[in-house]
Amino acid sequence: MSIKIDLRIFLFAVLFWLTKQIKFYAIVMILAFVHEMGHLLCGISLGFKPNKIKITPFGFEIHFETYAKDYNQKIKKGYELCVKRIVIALAGPVTNIFMMIICMLLPKNSFPDQVVVIYANIILAIFNLLPIYPLDGGRILKQIVHIYKGKEQAEEKANYISKVVVVFLTIITSITILYIHNIAFVLVLSYLWYLVAQNEKSYQMKQRMYQTLAKYNIH
Q1: Closest by alpha carbon to 147, among 218, 202, 84, 199?
Q2: What's the CA gap between 59 and 78, in Å, rounded?
Q3: Average pLDDT value for residue range 30-37
Q4: Measuring CA to CA, how many Å separate 2 from each of 30, 50, 53, 57?
Q5: pTM of structure
Q6: Do 9 and 60 contact (CB within 8 A), yes or no?
Q7: Residue 169 confidence class, pLDDT cut points 50, 70, 90
Q8: pLDDT at residue 218 above 60?
């Protein structure tokens, strides 16, 4: 299994250190690792084999191998694989929600930064459930559309909704920054725009491929 590190993580760490938020960033990254372990355990329990781990500025990504047999069971216009991917995507945010509930049930001051851990888990759960691909929410959306509308429609809807949501968040964040001067909002928003730009690039490449296949009547 290969491990890839996005070097921008060091830039983000420096920026959080300069703004005296490095402790919160460290807690978020630790909880993001636990979040990803939720994906990993769920994926393994469903019979998938992890083949790559990527460390990003706001967490971790685990990629699983898929095999031809995973496409054998059809469900409407998708596959049983789509349902499994939805379950795996949900496992991460559910892990954060579970940890948040445990921390809330514990007596106050049971461990240092208990309130911060609760707050960070809420942020991670909400952030990852945003319908922006390739966040968990975007993955869930894409697989649901795949089941009911097919692969091409899934990619189109996921790409379109990702762009609409990030524009909406940009407006909200711009207003928020006027009252809460926190660089974290800018960094998170910049990262989301990066994800959307990368997805748009991938989407356009796939569209050209589909057009080529359609031109030569290849299905």
Answers
A1: 84
A2: 29
A3: 93
A4: 20, 9, 6, 18
A5: 0.87
A6: no
A7: very high
A8: no
